[in-house]
Amino acid sequence: MIKIGHGFDVHRLVVGRKLILGGVDIAYEQGLDGHSDADVVAHALSDALLGALGAGDIGRHFPDTDPRYRGIDSLLLLAEIQQLIDQQGYLLSNADITIVCQQPKLAPYLEAMQSNFAHCCRVQPQAINIKATTTEHLGYIGRGEGIAAHAVVLLRPAYENK
Fold first, then answer.
1. Dihedral sign computed on CA atoms, order 77, 23, 96, 139
2. Residue 43 in marked binding region
3. What is the model's pLDDT at position 20?
4. Does 16 show up as a binding residue in the annotation?
5. Among 111, 120, 124, CA closest to 79
6. Where is the signal peptide (predicted)?
7. How far is CA 51 from CA 3, 74, 119, 142, in A?
8. What is the mean pLDDT of each run of 10 residues along the chain (162 residues)?
9. 134 among annotated binding-site residues
10. pLDDT at 159
């Protein structure tokens, strides 16, 4: 049986933090506020994968009340989620991710994000689609107050032919 999952995450932009998106350190004067590295793209993908498994969300597995996750690289959390996928006998068929961000421009970083996620999820890069859009200066994202990401994934049984 195939399984579909959707994930969403948003974090506030603040001064004094690195901007990490899709595991890529992006040169920018602000970063995302959060308990971990606040990588909204990795968090949205993680939530989509957990949703497809029917396993709750990233906060249930890696709570912000646990000091072990303070500042943690979200790609490490994604790798742990991939272990759950393996244990349940599934493979990631594909992921489609949208980053909603007014600034900075993300096109130069998308391929590196794709490579990071493909490595963590043990798939070919073509299985991971990442795109970025703005809100045309509307709302909190348009005002530069935060960044959001949506992800949709399809899991298929590991024993099934490709």
1. positive
2. yes
3. 98
4. no
5. 120
6. none
7. 9, 17, 20, 28
8. 97 97 97 96 98 96 91 95 96 98 96 98 97 96 97 92 53
9. yes
10. 83
Assessment of whether the complete model's pTM goes beyond 0.70: yes
63 is in an annotated binding site: yes
- To the question of whether residue 35 is assigned a binding role by annotation, the answer is yes
74 is in an annotated binding site: no
Q: What is the CATH number of domain 3-157?
A: 3.30.1330.50
H-state helical runs in 26-138: 40-53, 58-61, 74-87, 110-121
| pLDDT at 153 (0 to 100) | 98
Q: Which residues pair with 60 in a beta bridge?
A: none
Which residue in 33, 35, 3, 1 sits closest to 17, CA to CA?
A: 33
Q: Which of 7, 44, 152, 8 is nearest to 94 (CA)?
A: 152
Angstrom distance (rounded) from CA 38 to CA 105: 18
Instruction: Tell me if 135 sits within 8 A of 142, measured CB to CB.
Output: yes
Locate 4 and state its tokens.
């579909």
- For residues 4-38, one letter each, b for 16 or more C-beta atoms within 10 angstroms of the residue's C-beta and e for the rest, the string is ebebbbbbebeeebebbbbbbebeeebbbebbbbb
